[in-house]
Predict the structure of Zinc carboxypeptidase.
Amino acid sequence: MRTLLAVGAAAVTVALPLATGQSASADAAAVALANPNGEAMYLVQEPGMRTGHLATLLEANGFDLAGHGDSALGVGVLGDRTTPARARALGLTAKYMAPQYHPVDPSFQANADTYYGGYHTSAGHERHNAAVASAHPTLVRKHTIGQSWKKTQGQGGHDIEAVCITKITSGDCELTNTNKKPKFTLMSQIHSRELASGELSYMFMDQLVNNYGKDSEVTALLDSTEVWVIPIANPDGVDVVSSNSSRPVLQRKNLHENGCSGTQIGTDLNRNSDYHWDKNQGGKCSETYPGTGPDSEPETQGIESFLKRIYRDTKPDADNTPASKDTTGVFLTVHAYAQLNIFPYGWTNNNAPNHSDLKAIADAMGAHNRYQVVHGDGGLNYFAPGATDDWIYGRLGVPGYTIEIGPGTGNCAGFTPQYSCMQSFWKLNYPAYMAAAKAAAKPYK
Ligand SMILES: [Zn+2]
């Protein structure tokens, strides 16, 4: 999640998975077993809600905000059986939206590469990156672009990997910005508990390499454009998430030790970038802790220096100075959930200088995934300073986007949808990714 939670105006119903031959009550029992403490998403509401007040109040009282709400509806939180009473104590109400966890299909056999019905672990993604590169030498180059915090400490950890996919000709897929082909970068799971995001990158890579020369749209894209994928931007975090195969651990931040316990450990990598970094995003144990300073985290450093190497800088740093018209490239970071296409800026409600062109690409994605197109804070006085999408636009002039995958209610709601939801997410978002990738040639008309 980045900024907003658009829950939609539909009535709140508790939808339980109904597999063939199973009764609703058997399913309810299975859901209860998967959520022994009543782990669920709630929509917290405030009578006569004041703009910008509710999210701040909840955060100050230690709630885990799943999103920062639609001003008309409320704020989504991750909670359990105690949540309604905690909300009542603050004069608020908490509506049950959907269970946090879903029973894993009994036919699913987890191996070292997968968990929770089929999602890929960090190691699974690394094996996949290597396999794709070795099976398609004319289309794929794999690069190491940085290290996770644990790796920098000699505590295991991971490299951060980026995979470049194009019809490779001389000079392609190098870590330079002098190559002629425009570059589209897709990054996922910087917030490790947002499961759908990394899985869609895995599917996107397979879709491209398996359909070059067969599908005209894929072929045209790879003939003209470098597609870079960073499937797992926070691999240490994903190790924690996947450490429980039937009930993923809700680790959002990296694993930088800071005296906090459990999933409160770490820095929010999507608040750590050095463009409008804001120390007031939360204390050490908060889910939005921005770190000790801008770019304090090795993951952020690796990702930013990679992006600086492959993209030209076409924008003066002043917030109100536009990027030049000859800018090429698009950057897309994928989060969950809320069904949103978000364009810059996210640190302020002021329009970015390239506003209409930036919005046009978000609209093109929205025409496919049907998610709402937004920027700024959605009227809540709750911003996301130090996020990667603002950083790449603010620092380099490359249009940066966030897609928030998935709904707030039903079986596919929340951070940990059942794996079968990937099919509907893919159907909606593959064409949205392609629209963003095609815009890389000339994003500013
Ligand atoms: Zn997120």
